[in-house]
Amino acid sequence: MNERRETFRSFSFQIYEVVMHFTGHQDHNIVTASLECLQQLLKNGPTELHTLLMRPGAIKHTSIYPDDVDSAKAASGDN
Q1: What is the pTM of this model?
Q2: DSSP 3-state assignment of 18?
Q3: What's the Rg (C-alpha) of the chain?
């Protein structure tokens, strides 16, 4: 059961990452669709995703921007 929950949480976070990635697209239709999806994901998404997003330090790496977390820590001096 724990493995299934972890897989679900990971999948939910991957969806969140993709949606966030497309909010920066040049086509306003894609941005609008991404924002609508993000609204539904945050409003009706799994509790595990909300917990992950709200807990400081819970996100160790990302799939889309692999250097972001490490770069942010280096810039802030958190090593």
Answers
A1: 0.68
A2: helix
A3: 14
CA torsion 40→42→44→46, rounded to 10°? 130
Give yes or no for residue 49 having a pLDDT over 70: yes
Residue 44 burial by CB count (10 A; 0-12/13-18/19+): exposed, middle or buried?
exposed
- What is the model's pLDDT at position 48? 83
> Which residue, among 48, 44, 40, has the nearest Cα to 6 in the 3D structure?
48
Burial class (CB in 10 A: 0-12, 13-18, 19+), 16: buried
Stretch 43-65: mean pLDDT: 81
Residue with tokens 């299934």: 4
Place of tokens 């493995």: 3
